[in-house]
Amino acid sequence: MLGLMQDQPLLISSVLEHALSAHPWSEISSRTVEGPMHHCTYADIGRRAKQLANAMTSLDVQPGDRIGTLAWNGYRHMELYFGVSGMGAILHTINPRLFPEQIEFIANHAEDQYLFFDLSFAALVEQLAPRMKSVKAFIALTDRSRMPAIEVPNLLCYEDLIDGQSSEYAWPVLDERAASSMCYTSGTTGNPKGVLFSHRSTILHSLALCTSDGFGLSSADSALLVVPMFHVNAWGMPYAGAMCGAKLVLPGPALDGESIYELMRTEEVTLALGVPTVWMMLQQHVEARGLDPAKELRLNRVVIGGAAAPRALVETFETRFDTRVLHVWGMTEMSPLGTVCTRLPKHRTARLDELLDLQAKQGRALFGVSMKVIDADGSELPHDGKASGHLLVKGPWIVSQYFRGEGGRILDDAGWFDTGDIATIDPDGYMQITDRAKDVIKSGGEWISSIDLENAAIGHPAVAEAAVIGIPHAKWQERPLLVVVLKSGKAASKEELLGFLETRVAKWWLPDDVAYVDELPHTATGKLQKMKLREQFRDYRLAEG
Ligand code: ADP
Question: What is the pLDDT of residue 506?
């Protein structure tokens, strides 16, 4: 027997309509590419998203068409999020930090029909336009007076495009399983692969973000999205924000410590989201200027994900900023959110050092995400916090296959997706990432976690950034090499660093050597690029004793 409840598809347009009726005055504050702030409301976004939908209808955009963007976090990008998906087309956010050849590959693979771009990327668009075969027109996200002087056929102006269009638009009633947006993984191995999100997966994921054990997002929040809108939909925040009417603060291209701190202060930010490197820059700014964030800011939660949050970073936020850290884990293939590290009632009386240990973990699964760890034979491992194995996930906002079937079958017979991460799960359900399967250091048949070593090294006051890679070793197969970037004006010898680590990790984990570099290679999404680093140190030999 079927239930007798209304059968309404879960659509992105309905999130916008809800914001328009329940939170029309909630603000979207954006730092523009030109520099000044721009302030508008959900009512403005809704009105202009409808004008955009009408404009795209006049451009003959069809349901299912891919519409590319090369844009920072800003209000016009927000209009594209709702206008494009709402009308049934697919918003394809492209990461502008990728190599031009990768961008060309992605736009051609997705067969983007139109490409919207911020002025910062005008030269890039000029370079790539002749090779983007499917793109019918390139639309600069600006007004007539600031149009770039570039040689691009079919160059349009965004403000001209939507100007004069009606702000009345009846959103089509789509199948909730229809594709709404897409994002390519950074393709650390092989070509990037497209992950195609649906209206349904997006809505369910957004609901999870709004729960208290998610980000606890509400209309009382002013949320700063340092995580880019071109990377997994800014972790779903534009949709979740509209769903609960949170004020959104969009930083544009200015992601340095000073700009971020100023935005936090002037926009009274309560929640901020980003990867560890961004937060390290912020903390260095605070340290260098002797600022007092606990007094000057209203920041009460900071979401850290995309890479492991070092303990020292968590400690500074908790103590100096008086801000609760929500350590999260996920991946593009998971929309991206899988786990959030929140506390349980049993932690109420825990000491600070115990809480910091807890928050070094990536957290517990949200409703909607099932997780398990398995060994090399596929047997499930116990949730004892010790046994580490391949982390598998399953759920309604997790990928079932890549766009155009690239990579073939990616789920096992029971529907589990292998994340490529190695992890433990403890008896309370807290998952901790040990490593990416391809980065783990195999020493004498045991595994050494490069992440644990890196996080410990970051705790040293002279270390700005650290990476650990495996170096071939005749006896042990591989041994760890610590590669560090020192803070400017600071020094730390190999002996000092190893002595510091000695009290923090098992003795047989201690790196065999320390190398000093000026900078570490990062991926387009700000992660350490271990493959490149391994290449850099390919000829490096350890003194084998
Ligand atoms: P990519 O395009 O490189 O796949 P993702 O953002 O999808 O970019 O990367 C997902 C991966 O990032 C995860 O599989 C995991 O290895 C790593 N990751 C994400 N969050 C964390 C975290 N909190 N701690 C450790 N690793 C993380």
Answer: 86
